[in-house]
Specification:
Layout (H helix, E strand, L loop, with lengths): L2 E19 L5 E20 L5 E5 L11 H12 L6 E6 L10 H16 L6 H9 L5 H6 L2 E6 L3 E4 L7 E6 L6 H6 L12 H9 L3 H5 L7 H7 L1 H12 L4 E4 L6 E5 L2 H14 L4 E6 L8
Parallel strand pairs: 3-4
Antiparallel strand pairs: 1-2, 2-4, 2-5, 5-6, 7-9, 7-10, 8-9
């Protein structure tokens, strides 16, 4: 095998709670992660030289060691003594710096792909340990599906699939720094914390409405104050019939869950027509069992 083509899926957070800030500066979280159908395409080709090269469809993305896919390839090559070079083609569709783990998912795809290309026979656990060196979301992006994420994001517990629904993704034309959001999070203040255990219980019962009634993202307490457009998108999605609307990760992307395809499509076309938001996507839940 000299090449491999992969799909790197985006994620949303169905609940995001920050438990505490540790002495080392990291924040401990409890999150419910969910893979969705929106994905980047990642192609990897073995080359006749020793270098790592990256090509993307977005001219503003770095193609050197500042790109996570490059870092993932370099990590594999270094750890396993691979001298042959690789060329990575990254076709981005997941919004960048959007709270959807696009970069982490791309890196996870490269780890998975190089494991296959070079017949390394690494287990999921070994790949996850490598992924953690690249970012806290990478191990989850290797696992995918519905999962409880704890610690700094590296402790993962698979849970039953989330009840079927339709998902509208809306990213405004702003970028939000994850580091800035966490630095300005005031856990001592009276902010809304999602009931993660109640969401898990509802998922186990396949009760969509009960699950969404406990949704929440503590990071909204920072971002909506600084970027009111995030709150505006939530209100619009709710007005269009979303049974839940919430920011994903540290933002600025907002997602709406719909129990009706008709309502979701109507909202999608109306938001696209407004042309005031940078990217709008209609998708669904990632189906368990789908391969990279």
């Amino acid at each position: 095998m000299n090449s491999i083509k992969l799909k790197a899926y985006a994620k949303i957070n169905l609940g995001l709670d920050v438990v505490r800030k540790r002495e080392d500066g990291y924040h401990e979280v409890r999150m419910i992660m969910q893979t969705i159908g929106l994905y980047d395409k990642v192609s990897i080709l073995r080359t006749n030289n020793t270098s790592i090269t990256v090509k993307t469809n977005l001219p503003y993305l770095p193609t050197d060691e500042n790109n996570l896919v490059y870092k993932a390839a370099a990590l594999i090559k270094k750890n396993y003594g691979i001298t042959q070079g690789v060329h990575i083609i990254l076709d981005k569709k997941i919004p960048v710096a959007a709270g959807l783990a696009g970069g982490s998912s791309d890196a996870a795809a490269v780890l998975y792909g190089l494991n296959r290309l070079f017949h390394l026979n690494l287990s999921k656990e070994e790949l996850s340990q490598l992924g953690l060196q690249l970012g806290a979301d990478v191990p989850y992006c290797l696992l995918r599906g519905t999962a409880l994420s704890e610690g700094i994001g590296e402790i993962l517990t698979p849970v039953p699939p989330f009840p079927s629904c339709h998902i509208l993704i809306v990213k405004p034309g702003i970028n939000v720094s994850t580091k800035h959001v966490y630095e300005h999070l005031k856990l001592e203040e009276d902010i809304h914390h999602p009931n993660i255990d109640a969401i898990l219980a509802a998922i186990n019962k396949k009760d969509l409405k009960a699950a969404v009634s406990h949704f929440g993202n503590v990071l909204e307490s920072v971002t909506i104050k600084e970027y009111p457009v995030i709150g505006q998108i939530k209100e619009e999605l709710t007005a269009f019939g979303a049974i839940a609307a919430m920011m994903s990760g540290s933002g600025p992307t907002v997602f709406g869950l719909f129990d009706s395809r008709e309502k979701a499509e109507k909202a999608f076309y109306q938001l696209k027509a407004e042309k005031c938001y940078k990217q709008v996507f209609l998708t669904g839940l990632y189906q368990p069992g789908l391969k990279f």
